[in-house]
Amino acid sequence: MLQWISNSAIDRQKWDACINKCEWGKVYALSWYLDFLTENSWEALILGDYEYLMPVPFRKKLGIKYAYRPNFCQQLGVFSAASNLPKTILNDFLKELASRFRHLHYPFNHSNIFENELQLKLLKRTNLILNLGKPYENIYQLYSGNLKKNLKTAKNAKLFIKENIPTELVISLYKNAWQTLNEIPEHDYSNFKTLVDFAEKQGIAERFGVYKNETLLASCIVLKFKNRLYYPFSSISQEGRKFAATAFLIDSIINRYSNSNNFLDFEGSDIESVKSFYEKFGPEKEYYYQVNKVFPFFNKVSALLKRLNTS
Questions:
Q1: CB 3.0 to 4.6 Å from 104: which of 67, 225, 271, 305, for a disulfide?
Q2: How many distinct structural domains can be found in the chain?
């Protein structure tokens, strides 16, 4: 029988043991990752003694509790210490989630393949992953011609990599590059910084910067969990675009981790320009679904409040 567990009642040790053992376990589903990102505002559906589990981040607005996808948290869904996930169990989790929230935008993971018996709105999303289990030269051969040309531009510009640059520098460059296109609240950046600093102490976070002379042109954070290198946070300056700094940065990471049993997880994207850029590295597609359930009143009042705040 499925149990709905409050945040304070979740056994973190059992929870993380399940995520670690799960073949498709994601870094986003670790208890500390969720604690930092949501400030402990997540609960869980659990079946058995943490044999199957699903984290559910939530917020409250206009007196309505709703499930959502936090920033810097691409995939959640159902995880299990078992080697497979029966569709009947997955559907039970989905039904229970939908029954508890009138409004939700919730991302499942790439291993959650279910029959949509409830006829909920499913948004198919694209992730791109690159197998690093080959020599760098073999991976490089599959790069697009345009990418190889850009890497020559970067080489001629004498770009170089610095490791473990301050998290604040990475976030600052990210804000300058993307904040006007993707407005993220300041406290989400603060929570993510705390998360990255904690992950570094656990030995699973790295921060890279691309420099020309002493000028930072591009940067990223890489999280390492199980056999994946997650690429959740990257940015570039205007000058960096001229010298193909992001291409140089990703190529350097690929070179560093080639011939390993890892996959580079690009974290998307469904934005055509971003997807086409990542595809130049020769990754494969990996799909997952986001379940959307809309409470019309909630959306109407939220839109009205937003107009009032900007008028």
A1: 67
A2: 2
Kindly state whether residues 66 and 150 are assigned to the same domain: no
As given in the structure block, the two tokens for residue 167 are 């998290």
Residues 6 or more apart in contact with residue 224 via CB below 8 angstroms: 204, 205, 206, 230, 262
Could you report the per-residue pLDDT of 158-215, keeping only the tens digit for each? 999 999 999 999 999 988 876 666 688 999 999 999 999 999 999 999 999 999 999 9
Nearest residue to 150 via CA among 274, 281, 245: 245
Position 270 in a domain: no
Domain presence at residue 201: yes
Placement of tokens 């304070």 in the chain: 8
* Same domain flag for 304 and 232: no
Q: 3-class DSSP state for residue 201? A: helix
What lies within 8 Å, CB to CB, of 291 at 6+ separation is 94, 97, 98, 104, 105, 106, 107, 108, 120, 121, 122, 123
18: left (phi over 0), alpha (psi -120 to 50) or beta: alpha
How many distinct helices (H) and strands (E) make up the chain?
11, 13
* Residue 46: φ, ψ to 5°: -135, 140
Closest CA to 113 of 88, 95, 130, 96: 88
13 and 61 both lie in a single domain: yes
| DSSP one-letter code for 7 | G
Burial of 23 (0-12, 13-18, 19+ CB in 10 A): middle
Q: pLDDT tens-digit profile of 259-270? A: 999 999 999 777
Residue 155 belongs to a domain: yes
